[in-house]
Structures are given as C-alpha cells and as structure tokens.
Amino acid sequence: xxxxxxxxxxxxxxxxxxxxxxxxxxxxxxxxxxxxxxxxxxxxxxxxxxxxxxxxxxxxxxxxxxxxxxxxxxxxxxxxxxxxxxxxxxxxxxxxxxxxxxxxxxxxxxxxxxxxxx
Amino acid sequence: xxxxxxxxxxxxxxxxxxxxxxxxxxxxxxxxxxxxxxxxxxxxxxxxxxxxxxxxxxxxxxxxxxxxxxxxxxxxxxxxxxxxxxxxxxxxxxxxxxxxxxxxxxxxx
Lengths: 118, 109
Prior knowledge:
The complex is a heterodimer. By secondary structure, chain A is mainly β. Chain A is 0% helix and 51% strand.
C-alpha cells in the first residue's frame, strides 16, 4: 500500500537553530501534502498545505517565515522550523492524499517527528 | 466548519471485550475517516467510509449519514489494539478535514 516516510522521527535542537523535517511519498505521487502539529492529548491541527511547484498555503496563525515549507517534487515536501524556540517543541506529522483528489481520497500519514527545543 | 465530537475520550477495557467508539459531526459529509495513532505517534488510516458499514479483520466501522454519526467497533479486543482512535470529517482547514480529539483506548490483558 501507499507509504509516506517522514524523517527524522526525533530531533533535539538548541534554541535559535533550524530544523528540517522531510516527508516523502514512497510509491505514489503526491501533488499535495499536509503538515500538522499535535500537542499532548490534543487533536491534529493543520499548519499548512504544501503544493508541488507552488507556495504553501498556511492556516491562520501559522507564521510562514518561521515554518518554511518546500514542495520541490511530487514525492518530497520539507518543513523547516527556523530559529526554533522551546515553545516550538511539539509533534509534527505530515500526510498526503492518494492518487485521487478531494475529500474522498485515502489519507496516508508519516510516522511523525517529535521535536524538542532546549 | 464541521464540529467533530468523539466519545468516550478515554476507555479502558479487558482483553476480549467488544469496544465501541462514537463520532458525531455537525455538517453533512461525503466521507468520514477513522485513524489509529500508536503510542509512538505514527498514524494509520483505518477506514474511509461514506455509507453503511466496512469491516477489516476485527474492526468494523459504521456510518449513519442522516444522523451524522459514525461508530468504530473492535471485536475480541487485544492489548495491541491499545492506541488513540481519531475520526476526521470534511469541513475544516485547507484539506477540508476536521479531526476529533481522539479516544484513548487501553486494553488490559
């Protein structure tokens, strides 16, 4: 079945540094990928929609200059947390739709990245 | 925006018990997703359904479009079923999905 690979699974960084998270669709082309953030015991919150070959669409309240998204190919989207602060510590997870467009397309999730900023 | 409510928030049961998790939403939808999040955080899509019932192994998902309600059932529950189960419905965000807060299920041996 369709697989989305997310890397790294865990990262610890110092405050002020930048961290890049990769999300790859391994056996299908994903023109659209989604980045979520999840706080403990909370639901997934959409941060941005990553569109191949164009600018990402950010949700209200998400700083686009802090959370840089690049979707340079049909199989790779990256999220870079710039100048990380302890409050950025969270669980970040990506997803991609299958080959069909729209809400009825199956969702495929990465395994997530647990970011800890010290 | 669709409001998605799940119940119960937490559920602890003994191995072998029949489990039911409920999901209700406020706006009519074309398809609803059930997801499973493991303790490590990874998420697996269990079902996507738009009507009736779907079955996969010991998991059964049902949906009543008129009632705006869906249920996820687990038969002969096992400790490895322990996870957070999340339902998601269209109607929020750029990808059109609003996620419930999840049901934290623990199956004790």
